[in-house]
Amino acid sequence: MNAAIIGQMAISGALMGLVYALIAYGFQLTYATSKSINFGQGELVMLSAFFSLTLTNLGLSQHWGLGLSYGLMVPGGLIFGAIMGLVVERAGVRLALEQKSEGWILLSIILGLFFFSAAENIWGRDDRPFPTPIPEEPFHVLGLAIGPREVAVAVGVLGIMGLIELLKRKTLLGKAFEAVSADRDAAELMGISATRTVMLSYGLSGSVAALAGILVSPITTVGPTMASAIILKAFSVAVVAGLDSGFGVVLVGMFLGALESLASFYLGSGWREAPGLVLLILALALRPTGVFGKATIRKV
Amino acid sequence: MLLVEDLHAGYGASEVLTGTTLAVKQGTVVALIGANGAGKTTTMRAISGGIHPTKGRVVLDGKEVQGLDASAIARLGLAHSPEGRKVFGPLSVEDNLLLGAYSRLPRFLGYRAKASADLDRVYDLFPKLRERSGQAAGTLSGGEQQMLAIGRALMARPKVMLLDEPSMGLAPVIVQEVFRTISRLKAEGITLLLVEQFAKSALEVADYAYVMERGRIAVEGTPAELSRNERVIAAYLG
């Protein structure tokens, strides 16, 4: 048990944990404006990853080269994610919220199942590699081997979260977003359309899910079930960190990622999922509002 | 400027407004008084779109607005400073004010510069708000939050402003300040519909007044007329 190995495991785990943080952040975005979340968010991650893979392959078939294909795919994937987020809002959430019912829970799960079947039918059940111009060969810093793809995950996650936070704090649109989160009725009285703000939050949340899919696919491969384990842990992170602290999900996500990586190394890879579940149970028992949060997911 | 005709509205199966009719002429202050539960706040909410009327008309500057979403009515020039003030607690005082002018400002950048004249006007009216412009609105005292709620509504440069229970929960000396502000706004020519528990203060500032009872207007008239009305004196001014 030497410190270098522990450090190595912890760091690469923590970088992967940022994917959980990013998906949890997507939950926070929609929860803030509408007190609802998309329980089929994992399927958006998967669907966007498949779509992005198809875009990349399209570019490659035109001999554009991997770099250009990948570069063009990223915005395409994010837009696709945003559109899917809007589809979920329109088909699964809006009606339920207008009727002040909790129907969005079931509807968003059903939409997820539908997306899952659609993906199986369109792309098949096999896991596929996701081509990326980012090299796999690790580089060494202070004796630690760090994978460029994991660094890309970190840069992508922190980049988009930083960008959305900047939007929220510096633009009037972002302030309107915060106003709807604080008091929906009062925001309406200012001429701010709560419906459009909820749409914006679902669009952003969909983009964020798509980016999570794009970043994680080169490491995990793409397949219909690729997000099922990830999403469970993103839920854990959201519950543990609370639904209103972006900073909280980053910390908890990295912590959980590191813990998982250490657990699978020392206890065996079968234990990989254990820390997330233990953390979830502990959080629900000890601090249901989240370590950093005030709000809580309503227990279903 | 604002016309309400035979308005029916309520919450679910219980009808609170049973045919309210009132009018607010341009440049006048109109008071709506009445006992708790008479339907004053419901009238305000039915006008501004917080609840949808089941029957009747609301006409704002010649346009029928009943049935529209609150945000659409606000964009047409109605500013409603709601009961309980409802400031955006986590946002700064200045952000609250800027959001008041949301429908007139650019969505992304440059909105602060475009709103600076209006901000100055509100800050001159309420110097306390200038001192606290960077502070979270939720940390202000009740009186300051009321100033902020009024300032936020003024930022919209509304055609008609609704002001609901500005004195609620405030110390008497602050209430006086609120009414001094209303007088000042009146002198500047604001068109205002004011709901108020303190009937006496409301009648002092108003050009015209309505007394509500059980979901409809029971008595109306100029403040001078109402002050001579036995029923009004017994119920609200005694």
Could you write a compact summary of the structure shown?
The complex is a heterodimer of chains A (300) and B (238). By secondary structure, chain A is an all-alpha fold.
Characterize the structure shown:
By secondary structure, chain A is mainly alpha-helical. Chain A has a single domain (3-286), classed as ABC transporter involved in vitamin B12 uptake, BtuC (Orthogonal Bundle). Chain A is 74% helix and 2% strand. Chain A is built from eleven helices and two strands; from the N terminus they run H-H-H-H-E-E-H-H-H-H-H-H-H. The longest helix of chain A is centred in the first third of the chain and has 33 residues, at 66-98. Chain A is globular. Chain B is α/β, with parallel strands linked by helices and 238 residues long. Chain B has a single domain (2-87, 157-237), classed as Rossmann fold, CATH 3.40.50. Chain B is built from eleven helices and ten strands. A six-stranded mixed sheet of chain B has the order 6-7-8-3-9-10, sandwiched between helices. The model of chain B has no long low-confidence stretch (mean pLDDT 94). The chains are: A mainly alpha (300), B alpha/beta (238). The interface between A and B is medium-sized, with 21 and 32 residues.
Query: Roughly what is the average pLDDT of chain A, rounded to an integer?
Result: 91
CATH overall fold name of chain B: Rossmann fold
Greatest contact pair? A-B, 21 and 32 residues
Q: In sequence order, what are the helices and strands of chain B, one letter per element?
A: EEEHEEHEHHHHHEHEHEEHH
> Which segments of chain A are poorly predicted (pLDDT under 50) over 5 or more consecutive residues?
none
**Which strand-content bin applies to the residues of chain B?**
25-35%
Instruction: Tell me the distance between the termini of chain B.
Output: 32 Å
CATH class of chain A: Mainly Alpha
The strand line-up of the biggest sheet of chain A is: 1-2
CATH topology description of chain A: ABC transporter involved in vitamin B12 uptake, BtuC
Number of domains of chain A: 1
Number of strands of chain B: 10
CA-based shape of chain B: globular
Helical content of chain B stands at: 25-40%
Structural class of chain B: alpha/beta
Mean pLDDT of chain B: 94
